[in-house]
Specification:
Elements: H1 11-53, H2 56-116, H3 119-168, H4 173-178, H5 185-191, H6 194-209
Helix pairs in contact: 1-2
């Protein structure tokens, strides 16, 4: 709980503030290193001057200062390296945080989609669909069989009725079917009796009345 009504700091804002602070410290270290290097060059020149004069005592004292200056420079380099490492870790943490936020949003979307799709209900729907499809296929087969049997019955009934009519008019179906004309049409017409033509006309009339 925040004190005095102050808001809880934003993690992203804190990350940015830490990054800016690390960059500022890194620049300060670079300035200190540059200052130490200038001091190092100054001591080198003073040592050379004392050596040329033959002042061994002054040269030795300046050499000790140079050693200390170089050690100080090394410590500053180490500090700068540590700051750079921390800044790199901070960037990695920021990238990880951003990735976690994106994954959290993606997970939320996936959760919403999974809530909208009920696996059990989907399975029941698919099973019902398959069952209805099977029923439809069975119904089509039954209808096809019914139509085939219906047409077969009508064909037999028509054959029986035609045979009955031929029997009533005194004609032999087998004889009529086997009597294939072998003579030209003109000679057959001249040799056909009038009574046979009358019977055929009567047969055609009966067939027309069906």
């Amino acid at each position: 709980m925040s004190w005095f009504g102050s808001k809880k700091p934003d993690p992203k804002e804190e990350m940015k503030n830490n990054t800016r602070m690390l960059k500022r410290n890194e620049r300060e270290m670079e300035r200190e290193i540059s200052k130490i290097e200038r001091e190092e060059e100054k001591l080198k020149r003073q040592i050379k001057v004392a050596a040329k004069k033959g002042d061994r005592k002054t040269a030795s004292a300046l050499a000790k200062q140079l050693v200390q200056t170089r050690k100080l420079k090394e410590r500053h380099y180490q500090a700068k390296s540590s700051i750079v490492g921390v800044r790199g870790k901070t960037k990695a943490m920021e990238a990880t945080s951003n990735m976690a936020n994106v994954m959290g949003k993606t997970t939320k979307v996936m959760t919403n989609m999974n809530q909208q799709v009920n696996p059990q209900q989907l399975m029941q729907t698919m099973e019902k669909f398959n069952a209805e499809t099977m029923k439809m296929d069975m119904g089509e087969e039954i209808l096809d069989d019914a139509f085939e049997s219906m047409f077969e019955g009508e064909e037999e009934e028509c054959d029986d009725l035609v045979g009955q009519i031929f029997t009533e008019v005194g004609l032999d179906i087998t004889g009529k079917m086997n009597a294939v004309p072998t003579t030209p049409v003109q000679s057959q017409q001249t040799s056909t009796p009038t009574a046979t033509k009358t019977e055929e006309d009567d047969l055609l009339a009966r067939l027309a009345m069906l």
